[in-house]
TrEMBL record:
It catalyses: [GlcNAc-(1->4)-Mur2Ac(oyl-L-Ala-gamma-D-Glu-L-Lys-D-Ala-D-Ala)](n)-di-trans,octa-cis-undecaprenyl diphosphate + beta-D-GlcNAc-(1->4)-Mur2Ac(oyl-L-Ala-gamma-D-Glu-L-Lys-D-Ala-D-Ala)-di-trans,octa-cis-undecaprenyl diphosphate = [GlcNAc-(1->4)-Mur2Ac(oyl-L-Ala-gamma-D-Glu-L-Lys-D-Ala-D-Ala)](n+1)-di-trans,octa-cis-undecaprenyl diphosphate + di-trans,octa-cis-undecaprenyl diphosphate + H(+); Preferential cleavage: (Ac)2-L-Lys-D-Ala-|-D-Ala. Also transpeptidation of peptidyl-alanyl moieties that are N-acyl substituents of D-alanine. Gene3D superfamilies: Biosynthetic peptidoglycan transglycosylase-like, DD-peptidase/beta-lactamase superfamily. Pfam families: Transgly (PF00912), Transpeptidase (PF00905). The keyword Lipoprotein does not apply. Keywords: Carboxypeptidase, Glycosyltransferase, Hydrolase, Multifunctional enzyme, Protease, Transferase. It comes from Laspinema palackyanum D2a. This is Penicillin-binding protein 1C. The keyword Transport does not apply. Residues 314-345 form the PLD phosphodiesterase domain.
């Protein structure tokens, strides 16, 4: 009885011939199917089945300067050579070290197996292995844990290799896959990397060194453990003597020969991260590539990345990345992924340009532009920077705060964006809607923001999603081009399409966002006027800091270039109090100054279809006589109706908590506190105002009379004696001391008034000193 018939009988189907016949057919079909599926695992493996088709690619910069040659298109360096292109010394060395009877046995060396078993029994532990070169090749083709089932599988693959290939073909496949330390594979790649020689020119000293590495490639790495490698070389030479390949005298000369190991640049002159990234996007068959990179600029940026990281080492900073783009063409001019690609111990091969990290506040400009574009806010609108709480389902209250942990009360849109205030930004996102804003980010090409709007929540405006430096830079190029989102280019005449980028609607607000980001006075509250963000030519810039100081970003542009920088740790470890302005901004500053060293850029574009109007800095409306400060802001025609109302600005109930804090008597000991100006503030005169003035104000009005005194260039003078809580003062250029007295209480502050500079003064912001930030 057949096995199928016996199986049918066991199922109890003898009395049902029709069912029994059908079941036999089904079982026969299943058996045939299983056999067909097993055929690939039964057939011999031939040389063409495992052929390596890696081809070296040579890169140059935009001017034809060489950038380097990659042996392969990924980060595993491999170069394939024929057996006759490898020196006889290496072939003898590797056979002596790994499988001395290679040309005498089959796929498995039964003598070696018997010896290994006998030694193990005698020593009661594993003394030596019995892997042949064929078995090692099988393990390279199908890596698996060293368990008995996998070992049996390795033997089976070895038999298939031996059945389909001759010994020379197996040896050739083996030497081209040998692990040679780090990410180097094969004798040709190792010879060129370590010695700058082709495998055909290896002498006995070189060959015995390379043959020593595969036994433990990480331990015998020439860059990190030369002494151990030399001991292993002696073992290889001794085996070659025992097998009759060389004499003892030749072995001694090889061991004593001084060998120069090259620096680990793998034949790369500049931009290794970029070369590997681009190589993976090239079509097959390409062997030479001209790129858009500028090699001198690339090398300058690489040096600056290294220096900035070195300067921040005490703050637990280990990594940085930078990208430079030509705004006119979209061409990538410099691409630095880490301080040192070849520093394996420092995770140097990680690419900070493509890595996904939280961007902090770097996405805020896109939110404000979108909100202005759809009419969710107006340029002259006053936003509330006050304690605010949001109920998040299934979580605690979300209460956004700034790194200063201070609240400024009513602020203009320009100040909210320029000073990167979190509370007003979250309010704007709440008005716009997370889903709509996420859609705009997808339009801008942020293709890795793939989660749902609920996943990101209101934190999306503050960087709760993960983006790459590449995506950020590309989006900022769109701002620089007034909303014209173009694909970036890495080879002349071609562009890299963004997977999800879509055309943006025309809008005058892109230029307005650029104007706000270039306004050094608008950002003075958080950064001061003369910070590293302020350049001696027109430039727009935005910083970002992720939670717990894990990432810092600075992205900015002139008319000609966009520069994006990141500073942090690939491990995700926190830095020690390093923010965007102290981490990534100095790197951005250095690159920008270098780019414009010989030619100052043109002015940034002014917003079309928008007109500057004077507004009250406190109300955002048409100035009234009691307005303490008048500034200029761009408005569209649709904003003029509300602007012309000019009504008195009344704070809503949402300011109550903030007002309560402001109205507390600010006493230090027995001293009365001046609320405005604050100590070391300074002001810029607006020459277009007939009588520019500021308001002196106390934190609380005392019951006793107040004496106001002002000490300046013309001496000491008493001001209006009838004023109690506040008074207005016509500004004059100079250094001033404001003093106030009430009975036995007194307080004084110093401040400056500076003449107008040559730039259009639309900012009108008082400036904090460095100590107050």
């Amino acid at each position: 009885m057949s096995e199928i018939g016996l199986f049918v009988q066991q199922l109890g189907l003898r009395r049902h011939p029709k069912l029994r016949g059908s079941l036999k057919i089904l079982l026969a079909i299943a058996l045939v199917g299983a056999t067909v599926r097993m055929l690939p695992y039964l057939a011999p493996i031939r040389a063409e089945d495992i052929a390596q088709n890696e081809q070296a690619v040579t890169f140059s910069d935009r001017n034809g300067l060489p950038l380097g040659t990659l042996l392969t298109r990924d980060q595993d360096h491999t170069a394939v050579v024929a057996l006759e292109q490898v020196s006889e010394s290496f072939l003898q060395a590797i056979i002596a070290a790994e499988d001395k009877r290679y040309y005498q046995h089959g796929a498995v060396d039964l003598q070696a197996v018997a010896r290994a078993v006998l030694e193990a029994v005698q020593a009661r532990s594993l003394v030596s292995g019995a892997s042949t070169i064929t078995m090692q090749l099988a393990r390279m083709l199908e890596p698996a844990p060293r368990t008995l089932p996998h070992k049996l599988g390795e033997v089976w693959v070895s038999w298939r290799l031996f059945a389909g290939m001759n010994r020379d073909e197996i040896l050739q496949a083996y030497i081209n896959r040998l692990p040679m330390g780090g990410n180097i594979y094969g004798v040709e790649a190792a010879a060129r990397t370590y010695f700058g020689l082709p495998a055909s020119e290896l002498n006995l000293a070189h060959a015995s060194i390379l043959a020593a590495i595969p036994n433990a490639p990480n331990h015998y790495n020439p860059y990190t453990n030369w002494r151990s490698l030399k001991k292993r070389q002696r073992y290889v030479l001794d085996r070659m003597i025992a097998d009759g390949y060389i004499t003892p005298e030749e072995a001694t000369r090889a061991e004593q020969e001084e060998i120069q190991v090259l620096l680990p640049d793998r034949g790369i002159i500049a931009a290794p991260h970029f070369l590997f990234w681009l190589a993976n996007r090239l079509p097959d068959g390409v062997s030479t590539v001209q790129t858009t990179l500028d090699r001198p600029l690339q090398q300058f940026v690489q040096t600056q990345v290294q220096e900035v990281v070195r300067s921040l080492a005490a703050h637990q900073v280990n990594h940085a990345a930078a990208l430079v783009i030509d705004n006119h063409t979209g061409e990538v001019l410099a691409y630095v992924g880490s301080p040192n690609y070849f520093a394996d111990a420092q995770q140097g091969r990680n690419d900070g340009v493509q890595a996904l990290r939280q961007p902090g506040s770097a996405l805020k400009p896109f939110l404000y532009e979108f909100a202005l574009e759809i009419g969710a806010i107006a340029p002259n609108q006053i936003l509330a920077d006050v304690p605010t709480h949001y109920a998040i389902p299934g979580a605690q209250l979300y209460s956004p705060v700034d790194y200063s942990e201070r609240f400024l009360g009513p602020v203009r849109v320009r100040a909210a964006l320029a000073n990167s205030l979190n509370v007003p930004t979250v309010r704007v996102l709440e008005e716009v809607g997370v889903e709509r804003f996420l859609g705009r980010l997808h339009q801008l090409g942020f293709e890795h923001l793939t989660k749902s709007p609920d996943y990101y929540g209101l934190g999306l405006a503050l960087g709760s999603g993960e983006v790459s430096l590449w995506e950020l830079a590309r989006a900022y190029v769109a701002i620089a081009r007034n909303g014209d989102l173009i694909p970036l280019s890495v080879t002349p005449g071609s562009r890299l399409p963004a997977a999800s980028a879509q055309p943006l609607p025309e809008s005058s607000y892109w230029a307005l966002i650029g104007d706000m980001l270039s306004d050094r006075y608008a950002r003075s509250q958080a950064f001061g006027v003369d910070s590293v963000l302020s350049l001696p030519f027109p430039a727009a810039v935005k910083t970002g800091t992720s939670s717990d100081y894990r990432d810092t970003w600075t992205v900015g542009y002139t008319v000609d270039y966009t520069v994006a920088t990141w500073v942090g740790n690939f491990s995700g470890d926190r830095m020690r109090k390093v923010s965007g302005v102290t981490g990534a901004a100095p790197l951005w500053n250095r690159i920008m100054l270098h780019l414009h060293e010989t030619r100052e850029p043109a002015a940034l574009p002014t917003p079309e279809n928008l007109v500057e109007y004077p507004i009250c800095a406190v109300t955002g409306l048409k100035p009234q006589p009691d307005c303490p400060s008048v500034v200029l802001e761009y408005l569209a025609p649709e904003h003029l109706n509300s602007y012309n109302r000019g009504s008195e600005f009344e704070l809503s109930q949402e300011y109550n908590s903030w007002l309560a804090r402001q109205s507390q008597p600010q006493l230090s000991g027995d001293r009365l506190k001046i609320a405005f100006p604050e100590n070391d503030d300074y002001f810029i005169l607006d020459a277009r105002e007939a009588t520019p003035r500021i308001q002196f104000k106390l934190a609380i009005a005392p019951e006793t009379p107040i004496e106001w005194w002002l000490i300046g260039p013309s001496g000491k003078q008493q001001l209006n004696t009838e004023a109690n809580h506040a008074l207005f003062w016509p500004m004059e250029v100079g250094e001033w001391v404001l003093e106030v007295k009430s009975g036995d209480l007194s307080d004084r502050v110093t401040f400056q008034v500076q003449p107008p500079d040559n730039r259009p003064l639309r900012q009108g912001f008082r400036v904090r000193s460095e100590e107050e930030k």
